[in-house]
């Protein structure tokens, strides 16, 4: 893969409020960027707001949204989108991503639900993504999500994702763990799926752990360490896409910071190894 620029570089960590104190007390050179859900911070003031501002002044940030509900039958919440735009601009966020799913219909459903894999849904979702990009005045990335049922399925997941990305002309936040989880739950080859994704649209990777409900049922929880097969798949993702910036997510059962930094160090080691193996400078450049 030829060298390309990304909105961030290196390795990142999902910033949760419980991590703010430890990161303030023991800042780590291993962390190159941070990510938050904007919904958790829009309108937050006082002491917590000031602490957050210190972080956004110190680190490059990306936003990973939770409530855009791009596949919802309800109209886009454009009032929220204008508030989001002000927030992203105010804190100089490098990029914004969301889930290729929906979570509302006349009210929030508090779960990320799968969009039917249909041609009609492709056109519907792509038009909404284009509208979001117009309002935010920036490209956005959509994340491949984990799902446990495929209601109304008329096309394969990979074909649906690629069709949406192409018609919307947006980018891809590639979640490596979600590919693994879905490959077990829906019985397909994870590496073959990965290699059909458009590497040129990838902006960064997500890595996370999951819960083993059964041998043939994995639940995407972000509540456990990354397992060996997912680390192996990350190496294959670097082989396919180049050494893409990579962020570690941990939402539950958050361990002491040194344990998370150990996983981030492992990401850095794989990035370095993959960069050497490809004989490139790893293709990572920071955009100002």
Strand content: 15-25%
Q: Main beta sheet, described?
A: 8 strands, parallel, barrel
Q: Can you tell me the CATH superfamily?
A: Divalent-metal-dependent TIM barrel enzymes
**Overall radius of gyration:** 18 Å
Relative helix content: 40-55%
Oligomer: single chain
Q: What does this protein structure show overall?
A:
- By secondary structure, the protein is of the alpha/beta class.
- It has one domain (11-278): Divalent-metal-dependent TIM barrel enzymes (TIM Barrel), CATH 3.20.20.150.
- It has helices at 17-25, 46-58, 78-90, 119-136, 157-168, 176-185, 190-195, 228-241, 257-278, and strands at 11-14, 33-36, 61-64, 95-99, 102-104, 108-113, 141-143, 171-175, 202-207, 211-214, 217-219, 246-248.
- The strands form 3 sheets. Strands 1-2-3-4-7-8-9-12 form an 8-stranded parallel beta barrel. A two-stranded antiparallel ribbon has the order 5-6.
- Strand 2 (33-36), helix 2 and strand 3 (61-64) form a beta-alpha-beta unit.
- The longest helix is centred in the C-terminal third of the chain and has 22 residues, at 257-278.
- The radius of gyration is 18 Å and the shape is globular.
